[in-house]
Amino acid sequence: MAQFKRILLKLSGESLMGAKKYGIDEQRLAEYAEQIKEVHAMGVQIGIVIGGGNIFRGLSGAGKGFDRVKGDQMGMCATVINSLALSSALGTIGVKSRVLTAIRMEPIGEFYTKWKAIEAMEAGEVVIMSGGTGNPYFTTDTGSSLRGIEIEADVMLKGTRVDGVYTADPENDPTAVKFTDITYDEIYTRGLKVMDLTATTMCKENNLPIYVFNMDIYGNLKKVMDGEQIGTLVHN
């Protein structure tokens, strides 16, 4: 029995690079698709938001002379590319999916609405929601918070390359201690960065818990759905 009936899975664009320095690692993409198929077979309704940092990140582009609005729009397009790649990988292994976009891009994807997304999930399709919020100055973290709240997900599963929330960055501080669970208020008090502040506040105010785990280890997504404590739960 799956822990959650409907999930918003937030995937990192950077993680899609796998062993590469840029773009999409085909093996990592295939592993993601297989993990999603495994959970989909459990009857879980799945909505997905994926970042675009493996292709272009608007904020870093702005630091290199790009106009911030155009940079963020390029970042939105990068998320669409990743979403199409994931949809293709899912289709290859027999999982029906639908790409919805926050800005009109027919025939690349259908224009996003909450009701279209929920209807597709209830019909057994994996729904991939791309283009962020459709607006500049908002990250894909905020986009995933917004979509998770809109589709009435039970939880946001934030798949990253670290296995939870720590007292400090475990990649830089070997003494960092991992939390099994932590409240939103404690996140603020300790100044921890689970997601950007806007995204975190949206989840807190709308009572959407976040579960942070390492998606790059094959099989971890199903472990989360089986209730194994492999990450960190952030909650009110």
Describe what this molecule looks like in 3D:
It is a single chain. The protein is built from eight helices and nine strands. It has helices at 26-40, 58-62, 68-92, 114-122, 140-150, 184-190, 197-205, 220-225; strands at 6-11, 45-50, 97-101, 110-111, 126-130, 155-160, 181-183, 210-214, 232-235. Strands 4-3-5-2-1-6-8-9-7 form a nine-stranded mixed β-sheet, with helices on both faces. The mean pLDDT is 94. With 236 residues, it is an alpha/beta fold. The chain is 37% helix and 18% strand. α1 links the parallel β1 and β2. It has one domain (6-235): Acetylglutamate kinase-like (Carbamate kinase, 3-Layer(aba) Sandwich), CATH 3.40.1160.
Question: How are the elements arranged and paired?
Answer:
Blueprint: E1 6-11, H1 26-40, E2 45-50, H2 58-62, H3 68-92, E3 97-101, E4 110-111, H4 114-122, E5 126-130, H5 140-150, E6 155-160, E7 181-183, H6 184-190, H7 197-205, E8 210-214, H8 220-225, E9 232-235
Helix pairs in contact: 1-3, 5-7
Key words describing this protein structure:
9 strands, 8 helices, 236 residues, Carbamate kinase, alpha/beta
Whole-number total of structural domains: 1
Q: Order of strands across the widest beta sheet?
A: 4-3-5-2-1-6-8-9-7
**Helix proportion of residues, in percent?**
25-40%
- Taking Cα atoms only, what radius of gyration do you get, to the nearest Å? 17 Å
Specify the CATH homologous superfamily: Acetylglutamate kinase-like
Poorly predicted runs: none
Characterize the biggest β-sheet: 9 strands, mixed
**Approximate strand percentage:** 15-25%
Oligomeric state of shown chains: single chain
Mean pLDDT: 94
- Based on secondary structure, the structural category is alpha/beta
Straight-line distance between termini:
25 Å
Beta strands, count:
9
Shape: globular
